Amino acid sequence: MKRREFIAKGIVSSLAFTIVPRVVLGGNGFLAPSDRINLGFIGVGKQSYTLMNGLNRCKEIASLAACDVDRNKLAAFIAATAKKQTELSKAQTEIKAYHHYRELLDRKDIDAVVIATPDHWHAQIAVDAAKAGKDIYCEKPLALTIAEGRAMVDATRKYKRVFQTGSMQRSSYNFRQAAELVLNGYIGKIKEINVSVGEPVKQCDLPAMPAPDYLDWDMWVGPSPYRGYNPILSPPLEDDNWAWWRGYRDFGGGYITDWGAHMFDIVQWALGMDESGPVQFNPPKEANSNSGLSFSYANGVRVNHVQWGVHNAIQFIGEKGKIEVSREFIRSNPENLANLKLTSSDRRLYYSDNHYQDWVDAIKKRSKPICDVEIGHRTSSVCNAINIAYELQKDLKWNPQKEQFDNDYANLMRSRPYRGEWDFRKF
């Protein structure tokens, strides 16, 4: 669909779904307009509600706009946002709806955007947002391919934007405590690390069905190779299941990127590899294997993708002990380590206990937040390389400085073709 048609549809959507909440004037500590960070949301599926609720609790945030290609989800999200801002007694202005995200980016009064689309849209929207001068919060995994992630970093740096990756486990006690214990050698030299997340990405085999009239399916597919609609990829508003575009190539990266972007991120953090990465990937040689891959760093530490007994969790095994961590627990052997208070001489990691406020503070200071775009890119590169190794069933060497494999086929898989006029490299 041509851009001028999207503009026309965007205007119609904006008129149809604009909600003007009550206007609160003065008093009660409301921020002046010059002190606010005006926010727009791009992609308003299930995850966007968590982001909207968390960000609106930051006093500096004013939510002014939202965009989606699903009219029903867009209307519901705008209504929920207006309700939340009223509950929080925040000064409010109208929340406008947009069909095409570039119309939202054209607004000069929008300071920052939240990108919560399916993964195949992240790079194009983030690059366009950086070009438009917006600060960015982008859900994890950062990018669908390694090349996309590098472009997102480069565009962010070129336009001097503040970019937070939504790897929010870095802002929680369990994972920071585990990472600092490992980093400071409390369990001795690390021998190996076990990470239990689900299976790699696979080809989409869902049957094509007629798209509903409330959904612009061609725009939903966007830069990816076209395939027909299926509600598993984009569930209707009333379906509370997580959309499973995550599992299929061209849209997501399976559980390797969905949960791996959380867990492998903590591995990178604990090993001090935020600016680097592994040097070798060794997948199992059996066809259709869903686990058993290992990768290693230059210092000899090996990480295994295995189900070690607890789902979506990490097991650090050192010469002097063991630390296990998930969102629900942190435990150790010896037992006293798990909640040990570190000393003043220990190395400390970036402290954040609120991923959203950390981004807001970084915007105000023009500094890097706890999960800067480079960090997000390095983690998603690990995840994407794992998927490549599983698919090729080949041992691969990886150069984290050059971001290149020692295999021509693997290097081709660092990027993907874009459909139509879309091009994430134009910045």
Automatic annotation (TrEMBL):
<dbReference type="InterPro" id="IPR000683">
    <property type="entry name" value="Gfo/Idh/MocA-like_OxRdtase_N"/>
</dbReference>
<feature type="domain" description="Gfo/Idh/MocA-like oxidoreductase N-terminal">
    <location>
        <begin position="37"/>
        <end position="166"/>
    </location>
</feature>
<feature type="domain" description="Gfo/Idh/MocA-like oxidoreductase bacterial type C-terminal">
    <location>
        <begin position="203"/>
        <end position="423"/>
    </location>
</feature>
<dbReference type="GO" id="GO:0000166">
    <property type="term" value="F:nucleotide binding"/>
</dbReference>
<dbReference type="Pfam" id="PF01408">
    <property type="entry name" value="GFO_IDH_MocA"/>
</dbReference>
<protein>
    <submittedName>
        <fullName>Gfo/Idh/MocA family oxidoreductase</fullName>
    </submittedName>
</protein>
<dbReference type="InterPro" id="IPR036291">
    <property type="entry name" value="NAD(P)-bd_dom_sf"/>
</dbReference>
<dbReference type="InterPro" id="IPR043906">
    <property type="entry name" value="Gfo/Idh/MocA_OxRdtase_bact_C"/>
</dbReference>
<dbReference type="Pfam" id="PF19051">
    <property type="entry name" value="GFO_IDH_MocA_C2"/>
</dbReference>
<dbReference type="InterPro" id="IPR050463">
    <property type="entry name" value="Gfo/Idh/MocA_oxidrdct_glycsds"/>
</dbReference>
